[in-house]
């Protein structure tokens, strides 16, 4: 179970760093909608951290994962709701937010990849369930940012009469 412990510790560190990222940049972005999205994501990353922490405690005390029900996916609906809100953001006025959105995309992509690779290294059913759920959530975050980065870039291109395709 040493490998599982290391996976959980690394994942907890990632989730904490993501929370710090969103808390820091929520006050740096120009767009109110992106600020709200980052506030929601910071809270979500804290939830992810807590889930991982409970599993690590169980693993260290009982040498096994605890059975969990992660239908807490309701909390993940915030990403879809906030992403829908982002459709109304005028990125012409929020171009300074683009690098921050790109960093958020890269971070979420790294997290999804980590959870997918960690999933391949475990045989415990509860661990697989946990890691696959976290991978799914991180892919949803990543995909939302990918779409927003694409929209922001295209908006900028068009406003500058630049058509790269």
TrEMBL record:
Can you name one GO molecular function term for this protein?
A: oxidoreductase activity
Coiled-coil zones: 42-76
Q: Does the keyword 4Fe-4S apply?
A: no
InterPro entries the UniProt entry points to: Ferritin-like, Ferritin-like_SF, Rr_diiron-bd_dom
Keywords for this protein: Coiled coil
Say yes or no: keyword Transmembrane helix present.
Answer: no
What is any Pfam family matched here? Rubrerythrin
Task: Name the CDD domains on file.
Answer: Ferritin_like_AB (cd01045)
Residues in Rubrerythrin diiron-binding domain copies: 6-147
What is the protein named? Rubrerythrin diiron-binding domain-containing protein
């Amino acid at each position: 179970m040493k490998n599982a412990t290391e996976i959980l510790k690394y994942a907890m560190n990632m989730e904490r760093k993501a929370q710090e990222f969103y808390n820091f940049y929520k006050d740096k972005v120009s767009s109110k909608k992106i600020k709200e999205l980052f506030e929601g994501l910071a809270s979500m990353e804290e939830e992810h951290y807590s889930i991982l922490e409970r599993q690590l405690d169980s693993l260290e005390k009982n040498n096994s994962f605890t059975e969990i029900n992660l239908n807490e996916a309701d909390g993940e609906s915030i990403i879809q709701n906030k992403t829908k809100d982002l459709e109304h953001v005028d990125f012409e006025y929020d171009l300074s937010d683009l690098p921050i959105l790109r960093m958020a995309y890269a971070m979420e992509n790294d997290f999804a990849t980590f959870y997918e690779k960690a999933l391949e290294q475990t045989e415990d059913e509860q661990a697989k369930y946990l890691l696959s759920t976290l991978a799914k959530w991180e892919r949803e975050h990543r995909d939302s940012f990918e779409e927003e980065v694409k929209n922001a870039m295209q908006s900028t291109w068009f406003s500058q009469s630049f058509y790269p395709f």
